[in-house]
Amino acid sequence: MIDAIFAHLPILLIVMPLVAAPCCVLTGNGRAAYALALVVSLLTFACSITLLEETLVHGVVRYELGDWSPPYGIEYRVDIFSGFVMSFVSGIGAIVLVYAPLSVRDEISESKHYLFYATYLLCMTGLLGMCVTGDLFNVFVFLEISSLSSYALISLGRTRRAPLAAFQYLILGSIGATFILIGIGLLYQMTGTLNMGDIAARVPHEHGPRTVLVAFAFLTVGLCVKMAVFPLHTWLPNAYTYAPSVVTCFIAATATKVSVYAFVRIIFEIITPGFAFDVLPLDTELMLFSLVGIFIASIAAIYQDNVKRLLAYSSVAQIGYMLLGISMATPTGLSAGIVHMFNHALIKGGLFMVAGCFALRLGSVQLSDWKGAGRTMPLTSLAWAIGGLGLIGVPLTAGFISKWLLLTSAFEAGRWPVAALMLLSSLLAVVYIWRVVETLFFAEPSEAAANATEAPLRMLIPTYVLIGATLVFGVWTSYSAGIARQAAIALLGGTP
Amino acid sequence: MNLIVFALLALLAITAVAIAQLRELWAVIMFTGIYSFLSASWMIILDAPDVAFTEAAVGAGISTVLMLSTMALTGKAEDIPRKSSVVPLFVVIVTGATLVYGTLDMPHFGSPDAPVQVYPDPSFVERSEADMHGLPNVVTALLASYRGYDTLGETTVVLTAGIAVLLILRKNEDEQDDTAPLARNKSS
Amino acid sequence: MTLESVAGLYNYWVVIFLMMTGFYIVLARKNLIKSVIGLNIFQTSVFLLYITMGKVEGGTAPIVPPAIAAAQAHAAHGSDAGHAATPHVEGAHEVAHAALQHGGELASTTTEIIYSNPLPSVLMLTAIVVGIATTALALALVVRIREDYGTVDEERILELDRGE
Hints:
The structure holds three protein chains of three kinds.
Chain A: H1 2-7, H2 9-27, H3 30-58, E1 61-64, E2 75-78, H4 80-107, H5 113-132, H6 136-154, H7 161-191, H8 196-202, H9 209-227, H10 235-242, H11 245-279, H12 282-302, H13 307-328, H14 331-362, H15 373-376, H16 378-392, H17 398-412, H18 416-442, H19 447-451, H20 457-475, H21 481-491
Antiparallel strand pairs in A: 1-2
Chain B: H1 2-21, H2 25-45, H3 49-73, H4 86-103, H5 115-118, H6 124-131, H7 138-146, H8 148-169, H9 179-185
Helix pairs in contact in B: 1-2, 2-3, 7-8
Chain C: H1 3-27, H2 32-54, H3 66-81, H4 93-102, H5 107-110, H6 118-149, H7 154-163
């Protein structure tokens, strides 16, 4: 019995939230839907952890859907990298759900709760599906599931700007998805198959490189929209700012990371680093765009008065660090990029949770309304400070691990200017984090802040789980950087 | 046959340009329906009757209805203002040029030794004859069995859209004055 | 650039022109509904791109004539079970016999008819549904935006947002 379930883990992971979503709708009741969503997300997390264990011990897990072997059928394929991404996506999905109910009650009207949780589960299904599948077209289908549900979630914000932000994201996101569809089509045309491993084996690098090149360009541009890489990030600040707090926590922590995951898969497994970095100058281009993005977005973050918008710009900058690591294409660089996906998910998830706590108690995420809140809400404010240290990359926090690996790989490759620019950019993070810390602890309390009470434990505990995790993974790295390194080596074609 | 194809392609191009140029929303929606219908016709010639059928039903049918009802809900259609658009034109030309560049190494249209036609071997048509116990329509076999999970995904997309539309259009029962949170969340 | 390659590729170029027209409509958006329409045109044209890929010269739709299909199913069964099956379909007698004689080599009977590739059709059936789902969601958002702002003109909405 246990064995039978074990054999079907890759599909259970997708089917559980997928089936639970319509069940949530059928309950028609916010509380029941919440309970179901919570249980399912915890189960999904357990499944992903088990799968990750499995891949660490036994290597790649393959699952042929309907028993049709590829290239005829769709294959699910879980390796260390996808297991790692899946684990933190489902883990953060579960923690955000634990955190959610009070904030959701405050920001979304009662009659919509059950639909909200159903959509949340669908979004999770889409994101996990993108990680688990080994079929390129299936990636597109799951991408659309996650995108459509996130447009709906974002539109739920209280202000009238929320639907507008969702619409702008929808237009840009659909353009991105259509570009991805064109890219998939061109690759299919040159290889006759949709299975990623199969495409990699059959993609003609000598004959017909022009079509492959264009296919790759379209996939890259499409995914860059989804990853919010500068200058295609324009949808992100509005979407993150006007979405309900819970939605921002979840989407900021997971959605862009999964797109980065898909991008890494495509570069390293289908296009192969040899073609992408030696034939095409992709590494220099990526590095250029990520560095420019890091600086412009960090500087933009400094000038924001809305804390959620500040964090959103910081997310654009952080994506730059991930791509910077990936563009190095060395084991250290790539593992830095991968581990930063994880670390940044923890840090940003935690910080947006803090913003959600303040939004609940102060009714605002404007910096001016947070003045002096450090006195009445010390624990929440402390969480911001710790998370902020992680974002800057201070030693003993998770952020330090990824920055350290990035620096090491820059030195290894002899790219001193890149290392120097990275350190400089961390100073910008110090500025925007410090602005908030200063407002919280050293400003005269605003009226709202003086009357505020500490955030409820129901929200504080999950916040501290994520913020605490950034400290834990800043010291104990075998399950973050260790796994990332194994994944990176496997992606680069070696044996871990 | 060739004449029909040329005529269809020309009509498609004309319709698309007309949609881009027209300023009256009602006409634009009608032309969109026509565009879908013309695409469906070409799909028939390209040996894809299933897709043609779906495109005619969904593209020319449902989406036209959806757009018309949206137009009805959003009230009297204002004429779309004309403005110069150099940047979009530039982006589009660059993208299009990239795509044309990409076609240069493509297998020619209808070529029997294109990778798509020779791989996998045996082809889906041959496989399905043995696997599907005499099911005539191979597209059905693929849709429901070989790639059944894509179809499940597609159904999920429809479910997502359904729930999403409910979420978006349902009135907040505690609809309070929208200005209060607006004033608070106003960005710089 | 030979005449031959022009003849072989012009279909794709027309499709690219169509895609780019759709893309242009989205980018040059002045009206929210019109940008949704642009997205629609863009996606429909991508469907055409896929379908063009699947077409093969002299091919036909990937639907096996029912008579042949039934006969072949029988033949497959027959050779599996080790006894000759009697085809039920009258018109298929000839073909069925041929199939039986070839035993397991079913491929040889199908080479007479060339079928276009069914896979692009299947992918596009999925993509059409995804497209309509996106359209529906986008239009719902448009309705909502119109309720809140009183217009579907992008410029005016942005002005309203700046003005407050």
